[in-house]
Amino acid sequence: MELSTLFGWLSSAAVDDYLFWGIASLSGIVGVVAIVNALDLVYEAEVG
What we know:
By secondary structure, the protein is mostly helical. It has helices at residues 3-10, 13-47.
């Protein structure tokens, strides 16, 4: 693979889509983890 081909691929619209969905997925996972931790905190406060 030539270097110019690699740079051509990196500037394509497909990379923007992968980057967008990767960041969106990571944000979703962080959000779910935060919600689960908050619910766990509330549950332990009620039980304990």
